[in-house]
Structures are given as C-alpha cells and as structure tokens.
Known about the structure:
The chain is an alpha/beta fold. It has 10 helices and 11 strands.
Amino acid sequence: MTATIIDGKEFAARVRAQVGTHVARLKADHGITPGLAVVLVGSDPASEVYVRSKGKMTVEVGMKSVEHRLDAETTEADLLALIADLNADPEIHGILVQLPLPKHLNEDLVINAIDPAKDVDGFHISNVGLLGTGQKSMVPCTPLGCLMMLRDHHGSLSGMDAVIIGRSNIVGKPMAQLLLNDSCTVTIAHSRTKDLADVVRRADIVVAAVGRPEMVPGDWIKPGATIIDVGINRLDAPEKGEGKTRLVGDVDFASCVEVAGAITPVPGGVGPMTIACLLANTVTACCRANGLAEPEGLTA
Length: 300
Ligand code: NDP
C-alpha cells in the first residue's frame, strides 16, 4: 500500500483564502480590519524567519500586521507594559509573543499577561482550561492545523484510536484534548513510555511531535493508519552541496508511506497549516470581539 499524501501546503492555501474572504467581508460590511501584533524579543534566527513569514501572510489576507522587535536585554516590566498597551488597543485582535523568550524573562508570566480573548496562540492558562473543559477557546495553532487535516481526511474521528507521541504544552497536550473532544480514544506517549512501538501499532491516528529525526519507522504503523508528522528537524545534506541541510519529520517517511493509509510530508505538511491557523485564530478573535458570526470551519 502507498499512503495518500495529505498536502498541507495546498490545504493551508485554502484556509488562507477562506480567511481572506472573511476579512474582506468584515471590512466591507462593518469597516473592521482584523489586526495581529507579533512581539519578538532578541534575534533568534529561526524566530526571525517565522516572524517575517507571519507578517507577510497576515498582510496577504488583508489584515493589519504590527511587529514589535525588542532588544534581547528588554526587561520583564517593559515587555509587560507593551502587552498591556496591545491588550488595550482596539485595532489589535490577536497578540503573539514569539517563543522562546530570552532566559531572563518568565514565559508563563508573559503569556498569561495577554488578554485571553487576544491570545491567538492559545497558550494562556484560561484558554488551556476552556479547551480542557470543552468550551469555546482560542486553540493552539499547530494542533488546530492537525485537527483540520484529520477532519478533512476522515470526516468523523469518533471512536478512532489516536496515539500522540509527545506531551508538550504547545503540541502534544492540546492535540490530545482536541482529539478527545472529537471522541477519539487517546493515548499520550512520551520519553518514559514503555514499549512505544506496541503502543503506536494500536493507533488508527498517529501524531508524532517529538523532535527526533525519523524516529518512527514503518513497522510501528498499523496498516492503513493516518500519520500526522509535526516534527521539524534539520539534518546535514552533503549530497546537496557543502553546508546544505534538509528538513525531515519525526517519522521515517520512506518506510511509513508504504504502510500508512495517509501521511503528512515534511516539509509541506503541518508547518504551513500552523501559520494559516494563526490567521484563522486572528479573524475568529476579531469576530468574537465585535460580537459577529465567526467563519465556519476555522476553529475547533
Ligand atoms: P518538546 O521538546 O517540547 O516535546 C517533545 C516531546 O517528545 C516530550 O513530551 C518528550 O517526552 C517526547 N519525547 C522525547 N523523546 C522521546 C522518545 N524517545 N520517545 C517518546 N517520546 C519522546 O517539543 P514540541 O512539542 O515543542 O515539538 C515537537 C516537534 O514538533 C519538534 O520537532 C518541533 O520542531 C516540531 N514543531 C513543529 C511545529 C510546526 O509548525 N510544524 C510547531 C511546533 C513544534 P518527555 O515529556 O518525557 O520529555
């Protein structure tokens, strides 16, 4: 069997188009432009790339994009003061503080200072609690993108066995909550899980969010299972030239594609969906702030 490739790039383009249509309607019918503020502290090269591409895509869908680039030495008080200003700004509907923050800043404190209604990353403790109790919340972008792809591929996920490898607050745990809310039977595996191969073999859905290149081989996969590969790992690729690298996921694509029913590639799978879901969350937050109908299918 060769798996269906779930094309995250194409799916993300569709989500962005849907967001763009809704933004145009908000402008035309209500004179409202959704606004997203991204805060970057320091100059981590990977974060710089993410922030640039977030800003570009925000503008492409017709939203207002604001970037605040702060010095690596910025104090917690100054960062909290900026967040308070953005919380109070009626033209800003989404606030994202790019992680990781420099070590001297307390990430939990900073994230929990964001107005939960503007917390488009879905990391504020209130949103975590709302998601955990099945209430309307802002949903973390990467797991939301994974859920959208799974629903699109399967329709109903009810009764399916899902195994998530990884228990981080930004991917593994919210992913588990979303799949539980969709009536999957959910197992969360992590570095202390015994017999991981056997656990994964039971799964109809495998979500790999580990950060270990090509860790999951094809012989761990139940024939026909759906694999969502969240991992982004950069490996040296001397075959492409000196100093060149290539991206791989947490699953061994070559062997898994022969066994699975469907699989997301890396690159071109979960990655593009994450930014598309950030834009979706911003338009959702804007609609909620103004008491307007939310676009359908863009949240959990
Ligand atoms: P974390 O490092 O926060 O979490 C990794 C998880 O994997 C931990 O729960 C850890 O277990 C578990 N783990 C580590 N080693 C093993 C092992 N040998 N067996 C089983 N479980 C293991 O990572 P993130 O959740 O932040 O990210 C995971 C991956 O997803 C990374 O590659 C990251 O780059 C990528 N990512 C991709 C995004 C996208 O947009 N596509 C967005 C966010 C992340 P324990 O808790 O026991 O230590």
